[in-house]
Amino acid sequence: MNELSPLAAERQIIETLVRLTSPPARRHVVVCGDDGLCAALVAGGVHASLVSDDGGRGGHAVGIVGGARSRDALAGSIARIMPCLAEAATVAVVIAGDCGGLGPQAGALLAPFGFRIDAGVRCARALVLSAHRGAAAAMAAAA
Q1: CATH 3.60.110.10 at 6-142, yes or no
Q2: Cα–Cα dist 79/68, whole Å
Q3: CA separation for the pair 143, 132 (Å, rounded)
Q4: What pLDDT is attached to residue 107?
Q5: What is the pLDDT of residue 139?
Q6: Which of 41, 59, 102, 124 could cross-link 86 (Cys pair, CB 3.0–4.6 Å)?
Q7: 3 state SS of 5
Q8: Alpha carbon 82 to chain centroid distance?
Q9: What stretches of the chain show up as alpha helix (H) in DSSP?
Q10: What is the spatial distance between Cα 125 and Cα 90, in angstroms, rounded to a whole number?
Q11: pTM (2 decimals)?
Q12: CA distance 95 to 61
């Protein structure tokens, strides 16, 4: 089996993120936990920005969490991105290939916010999970 170059592996992750989250045209995608991932999304034509230090506020339809290498780091990034997301939103979690044990934990960390993992794709160097919540789920989670 041919191993992908680092650039090709990164491109594979970006393409997978775009396919799984379907970011709306001319709408921001908010990214937490990985500056390089945000830069790669922008280079790939996605209008993306990092969660600001103040946590940011807003109704973003798509959020991406990357760079977490432990359960605590993943939980922190998820908690940090939640205030930036709309009631009905999609969030993608990028888990490095050597941290595969975080996959099941991601679902448990997203569930209290009303998200349910609905897709996952194994890329050459990462696992990309996609989760969605509808407006009703967001209201129930807040109650």
Answers
A1: no
A2: 13
A3: 18
A4: 94
A5: 55
A6: 59
A7: coil
A8: 11
A9: 6-21, 35-43, 71-81, 102-110, 135-142
A10: 22
A11: 0.86
A12: 21
